[in-house]
């Protein structure tokens, strides 16, 4: 009798098992080199299946030495392309060809391989795959570490088991006292094998992600990540489960949010820090929408939202959420919960579905409510942001902390008065009070986020005030030759300090020049000399050297702008998407968002570029600080 086992049969130990049963006594076993190569690749990647298969090969060699069977390694090693195409059947085809060549029975635990072999006329022996580990009714051994108030369990080779316990607003990372001493490598291996095997065989579990060194499992209401070398420095298991299941009634603004969700399909971002309760709130929203007769689906990778059976949970199709989105558009959901929206591609998919008319609820990390919108800047066209996201819900310590309403208007930005400064402005309004807290708009080719009076992070000099000062300085410097300082006295009044020799140039004959500037800016300007500035004698002389001895050391990251023929460029490779302030000798110049290419580009000839180049010429220290 001739036998050709495939990779699945070798991994499951079916050859030695059948020899022990007497079925294969005296048989000739042709082991394909393709099987050996596949097992080596799996073992090198740290996968237990590879080591199991190599153990079976060693048992086959021992049986051949004892004379129980004849063993021969045949065929060729698979190419890299064939190994990469193993999931598409390239290696299985090599094995079937060897079975034909040696007139052998194809032994397999792979149902698809068995059916393909029968279709090509092979004599096939199909055996059920081995169910490693325990049955689903037995549960997992690590479940014993979970108490009613345990959110997650953290296990790692050579360390004491730990857990995060408490309520969602007061979690503590503590050692599990009844777990014994540090876990050894053998114990960690047993737990990891049990988790993966149970996920494969249990109807209550599945493997969400399987990559060399990392497996993510969903079992019952547990999401379990199993990391192995070389991806991690040791075997590590992190098991997480929700400790609270809420309804929308449990949150502040419940009635208002219900009305908002049902009024029409919305674009919503649920934001908060890790562990703040974003996903718990998203689950409550999903259940409310489902109970309100909306068709609700989810997009998750991995899938860990705890929702009712009526809500279908989708993951990345072919590894890409864009494919999932294409499929969902055919399913036509009323609302889709997207957990999590984090990378640029996620925001693009989210925006595409929202603009297609689907109600979208995205979960994203942010430390402030406004930061959730900031993450859209540069990823979605600015004018489209209110169409993509019209509501931001910020979660802190398991509660709704802030709700923002996002709209767009064509207006003069708050604090400016000149009609020719009107532009599309995104207004971020506090949902509870109806008070605008931020404005987002384009200024000199840069997107700026301006906190209004009373907004979080606001200061005595608002962003609008800074921009107004820049406009005034630009106008005055176009006619003054020396140093210029500007002080705002209110929304519509300013004092400009110039060199004594520049007074006549700035005011002009009969006050005509300063009047023209006032009319353009919509601001009344009082022109004085530096000597008239209270406590400003040191400013006289117009040196502009704010970095002289005795001044405070500039704060932030020091940068060296590069001046090209068209732009002034500041490289910020490690801060893509962040909003920052650019300063000269710690004096504010402008606010900008770092572009996708990792830089800030200011067009030469603009007011901002002129200020920046002037600061560079004066050899001032240019720094960048978070906005």
Can you walk through the features of this model?
By secondary structure, the protein is an alpha/beta fold. It has 5 domains: 2-126, 5'-nuclease (Rossmann fold, 3-Layer(aba) Sandwich), CATH 3.40.50; 136-240, Beta-Lactamase (2-Layer Sandwich), CATH 3.30.450; 248-451, P-loop containing nucleotide triphosphate hydrolases (Rossmann fold, 3-Layer(aba) Sandwich), CATH 3.40.50.300; 463-539, 2-Layer Sandwich (GMP Synthetase, Chain A, domain 3), CATH 3.30.300.20; 557-626. The protein is built from 18 helices and 32 strands. The strands form 6 sheets. Strands 15-14-16-17-13-18-19-20-21-22 form a 10-stranded mixed sheet, with helices on both faces. The radius of gyration is 33 Å and the shape is elongated. The model is unreliable at 456-460 and 537-553 (pLDDT under 50).
Short description:
By secondary structure, the protein is an alpha/beta fold. It contains 18 helices and 32 strands.
Topology:
Blueprint: E1 2-5, H1 7-11, H2 14-21, E2 28-32, H3 33-44, H4 48-66, E3 70-74, H5 80-84, H6 90-101, E4 105-108, H7 111-119, E5 124-126, E6 150-156, E7 162-167, E8 170-175, H8 185-201, E9 205-211, E10 214-219, E11 222-227, E12 236-240, H9 254-263, E13 267-272, H10 278-291, E14 296-300, E15 312-314, H11 321-331, E16 335-339, H12 344-355, E17 359-365, H13 369-374, H14 385-388, E18 391-396, E19 399-411, E20 423-430, E21 436-443, E22 446-451, H15 463-477, E23 485-488, E24 493-498, H16 503-507, H17 512-521, E25 524-529, E26 557-558, E27 562-563, E28 567-571, E29 579-584, E30 587-593, E31 599-603, H18 607-617, E32 622-626
Parallel strand pairs: 1-2, 1-4, 2-3, 4-5, 13-17, 13-18, 14-15, 14-16, 16-17, 24-25
Antiparallel strand pairs: 6-7, 6-12, 7-8, 9-10, 10-11, 11-12, 18-19, 19-20, 20-21, 21-22, 23-24, 26-32, 27-28, 28-31, 29-30, 29-32
Biased composition (Gly residues): 535-547
Family: In the N-terminal section; belongs to the PINc/VapC protein family.
Keywords: RNA-binding
